[in-house]
Every structure is written in structure tokens, then in C-alpha cells.
Amino acid sequence: MFGYPVLAMAGVLTHRQGFSLAACALLLTVLMVPALSSRRPLPWAGWLGALAAMAWLGLHGMAGLLLECVPIAINVLLACLFGRSLRAGHAPLIARIIEALEGPERLRVRGVADYARHLTWFWTLLTAAQALVLTVLLFCAEPGGLLSTLGVATPWPVPAELAQSYAHVGGYMLIASAFLLEHVFRRWHLRHVHHPSLHELVLGVATRWPKLVRGEDPASP
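^ that's the sequence the OP posted. Answer follows.
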């Protein structure tokens, strides 16, 4: 996962599509590792088909466009994951994370369940807003944005270097900063509750994330 932003920025700075294609291929492979490890033919066929599509886009000079769509897709996916858990009759995703890390009794502590719902709303809105900003940058970057490529006047012209830097570095820094600031605020706001360390929190979420996303019991084998 650390290799993706390095390759992505190399593609942006050097304008070599090979770096952009390598970044997209690496990200796709990392995301599909759980499915590929099952050794079923369908995930492998999908993975090979996606790589072939990337290669075709690269041959037609569109690897950069593919790379610029990745951050948008990631934020849309996250917004859907958090937002879907806010439906009536469902436990908010943050509440499920707290239950997985600290047990169901933690949600019965005063203020914790409400905070979990509010925090799920926060991440839903932040990732949705981030997807919107990235989409605007993709369309309005000059030169190289979709509108300028199509010969359409850009209503809000944004320098291409700024747009690409935010898409491939700034956007991820915003998410990381929000995560760290929320961690500090939570420890102050819910100071009557014992909290796991930042290392324990990150490791616990990373370990249980696939089952949490699928709605499975994170404690099950």
C-alpha cells in the first residue's frame, strides 16, 4: 500500500505512463489479495481482465486518467460503506468497530453509542465531500483536465500540478490528519472511558476490516 502513492507520484512528476499503470496494477492486486488467495477461477479471471483493460488504456495514452480516477473511487467506496451502515435497523460501522475491539459492553457506556453514530456520519460526509472535490479537480485541471481535453471552457480552472498533487498526496494526508485529530478529540470528549492506544486501534481495525465491511462477526475464525 505504501508503494502505490510512490508510484502514483512518480507517474505524475515524470509524466511516464508506466509508473501510473504500475501504481494502478499494484493497488488492484493488494485489494484483490483476499479473493485471489481463495484460488477460485473467477477472481483470477477478473484480476487478469482488469490488468488487460489497464494495459489497453495505457496503449491508448489514458493511463493518467485511470490513475486520477482511483482516489475518487476509493472515497466513493468509503462513503458508501459508512453511509450504508447508518440505515435504520443497522449498527453504524464505527459502533461495530468499537464492539469488535473493546466488546459489546463498551457501547453501553454513557455517550459511546451516540458518539459512534456521529462519527460514522462524520466519515460519511468527509469521504463524500472528498470525492466531490476530487471530481471537480479531475474536470477542471488545466492543462490535462477532462473539460480542457474535450475543448470545453473550465468554469473553475485549477493548475494541473495542484490538482494532481492533492489527488495523490493531499487527499490521503487529509484523511490521515482527520483520523489523528479525531483520536485526540475522542480521548478528551470521552475522557471517562479507557481508550486503546493509537497503535492498538490501527492494528485492530486493519485486522478486522474485511469482516467488518462484509458485516460478519469480527471475532469469528
